[in-house]
Every structure is written in C-alpha cells, then in structure tokens.
Amino acid sequence: HITPEKFYVEACDDGADDVLAIDRVSTEVTLTVKKDIPPSAVTRPIFGILGTIRLVAGTYLIVITKKKKVGEIFSHAIWKATDFDILSYKKTMLHLTDIQLQDNKVFLSMLNHVLSVDGFYFSTTYDLTHTLQRLANTSPEFQEMSLLER
C-alpha cells in the first residue's frame, strides 16, 4: 500500500495482522497493524522486497512485482523474481538540478539493467543463503530460527 507519507507492506499469510510501515521521509521502518493503513492508500500486489538503494534523488524501494516458480527443494517452493518496481521515497524531483536529474536517470537505467539480468531467486520457506551441507552441520537452535533471524 502506498500513501504520500509511507509504504505499507502487508503479509498475505492467513491470520497475519502485522504490517511493515516504511516512512518515506525519515526512512524509519516499524511494525504496525492492518487497521493503521489509510483507506486512501493505493494498493498493489508485490511478492517481496529486494531492498533499498540511495541514488542522487534519494532513497528508492525495490520490490518484486512478478515471480515464476522454478522448482522445489524438500517441498519448499523456489521462485525466480522476474520483474521489479523501483519506488521513490521522494514525492517530487523539484529539489534536483538538471544535471542531477540526468545523473539520477542514468543510475535508474543502470539499476533497471541489473534487475533485468537473470539470477534473482528466493524462497519464503527455505534458506537459500546457506548450502545444504552447511545447513546439515548447524545446531538445532539455528535450524529452529526464523529465516529473518538467520
């Protein structure tokens, strides 16, 4: 969900009420609940957050807008991110000079090129950041941690 003040990322898991709120001015990230999302927010589906990047114009949020299932590991779906959106935290570019606008445009073009190259994979239930061999040699405590905590 997008408002002029914040981005709200709502989990689509059944029963999930937590919402990630990202302030577009301070860039502060907090947890809130669904009822805090203003009705005026523009809503669109995403499949994940790739990250943020700071360019000449300010900070941008990179989100996954399309995905394709490419396989499974131990019954865990593995997805390939196939399309992205780059969302500006700033509401306007009026604070930039013509040269800065041109530089920002070039950097956005470069970023779009990098995102168009194959190789962005993710899973919401399986740890793709560690090899199977490494996972087999970790402690039971590590195995029980959420993917976020790892």
TrEMBL record:
The chain crosses the membrane at residues 46-64. It comes from the Eukaryota. GO terms for cellular component: endoplasmic reticulum. InterPro entries: SAC_dom. It catalyses: a 1,2-diacyl-sn-glycero-3-phospho-(1D-myo-inositol 4-phosphate) + H2O = a 1,2-diacyl-sn-glycero-3-phospho-(1D-myo-inositol) + phosphate; a 1,2-diacyl-sn-glycero-3-phospho-(1D-myo-inositol-3-phosphate) + H2O = a 1,2-diacyl-sn-glycero-3-phospho-(1D-myo-inositol) + phosphate. Its EC number is 3.1.3.64. Residues 47-140 form the SAC domain. Keywords: Membrane, Transmembrane, Transmembrane helix. One of its GO terms (molecular function) is phosphatidylinositol-3-phosphate phosphatase activity. It is an enzyme of class 3 (hydrolase). It holds the Pfam family Syja_N. The keyword Transferase does not apply. The keyword Glycoprotein does not apply. One of its GO terms (biological process) is phosphatidylinositol dephosphorylation. PANTHER family: PHOSPHATIDYLINOSITIDE PHOSPHATASE SAC1 (PTHR45662), PHOSPHATIDYLINOSITOL-3-PHOSPHATASE SAC1 (PTHR45662:SF2). This is Phosphatidylinositol-3-phosphatase SAC1. The gene is Sacm1l_2.
